[in-house]
Amino acid sequence: MKAVVFHAIGDIRLEDVPEPRIEQQGDAIVRLTASAICGTDLHFIRGTMESMKPGTVLGHEGVGVVEAVGSDVRNLQVGDRVVIPSTIACGYCSYCRAGYYAQCDNANPHGKQAGTAFYGGPEQTGPFNGLQAEKARVPMASVNLVKLPDEISDEQAIMLSDIFPTGYFAADLASIAPGHTVAVFGCGPVGQFAIASAKLMHAGRIFAIDAVPDRLEMARAQGAETIDFDAEDPVETILKLTGGIGVDRAIDAVGVDAVHAHHGPAAADPANQEGEQLKAQLAPHAHPHDGNWEPGDAPAQALQWAVKSLAKAGTLAIVGVYPPTDNSFPIGAAMNKNLTVRMGNCNHRAYIPRLIEYVRAGAIDPTAIRSRTEPLVDVIAAYEQFDRRQPGWLKVMLAPVGQGA
């Protein structure tokens, strides 16, 4: 089968890999009918998230049809349409039972202190082969697959695998209540869903901060008040528009990318192909002020802006991705304002059933955030356009080989 495989920093390839098989009786095999490219995938390719194991299939977002189940899978059967939560959980440890699926004690084979297990990630996350493929093995499938109602399309469902739950998780972490004024830093797909989720929670005003025109346009279409940080100081603007008070809640939906220069990767050589293999030359990004920048050197710009933009006794929610090596945070400023800071990896399985009902009821149509559908065979070119933040490439759904437009 075809899959997107990590080989080295800046080197990913679409190639043939063995089909997955049932390895444990709790497994299921899913034939993917949709997957997607996420900004997190770019961290692995750039090297800002270390320890990627060569040969790992990328991708942590998926929708598909169950093709096989182990004997311990008692709530699913062959032919069921399912969405795959991006993080992996056992469902029975104390953390899972409390809803902290991303902190599962049993999913990560490296042990209880190893951190979140998810598909297509670095060595310390499993590693588990990812979902940018034609088929995937899903461990502990009774918990890690959620059945889809017929009225929800693949285009809607793929947003339920990761980015809608993560955006909703951000709004939940921020404890948004009716009437709150909210600032969302970063208007990529997760930021857009954080805006949508803040609306579902009846926020009073929402400020959307970014510098990419089509992202700001989409945020404005959702009813957010947009701020282009390349055109004006976002902190000064927020304070001006809130009578000098600041916002009640702030969400960092961008993470380590906030310290990166806004430039595209090194160009790929379209002739650099060997049979079915393609390579993406997605170079690591550098700090705009230091060509030798490493994660952890300075607080990300989004965090500094968020802390300064918050009203006293406000709440900051962080869902943007930071590497484990990053150890910088404007703690003095946050402490002196009595801020509450909440953060973490999304507990996808806790939110997906609720979000399915929002979509089924018509409260939200997540396809408004998806901007492209590309066939899996064109995935390398899609990665390049997505990495460059080209207009119209906000969120990319990948269709199986032979499909897509």
Kindly describe this structure.
The chain is α/β, with parallel strands linked by helices and 405 residues long. It has two domains: 214 residues, Quinone Oxidoreductase, Chain A, domain 1 (Alpha-Beta Complex), CATH 3.90.180.10; 135 residues, Rossmann fold. 24% of the residues lie in helices and 21% in strands. It contains twelve helices and 17 strands. The strands form four sheets. Strands 3, 4, 5, 6, 7, 16 and 17 form a seven-stranded mixed β-sheet that branches. The radius of gyration is 20 Å and the shape is globular.
Key features of this structure:
405 residues; alpha/beta; Quinone Oxidoreductase, Chain A, domain 1; Rossmann fold; 2 domains; seven-stranded mixed sheet; six-stranded parallel sheet; 17 strands; globular
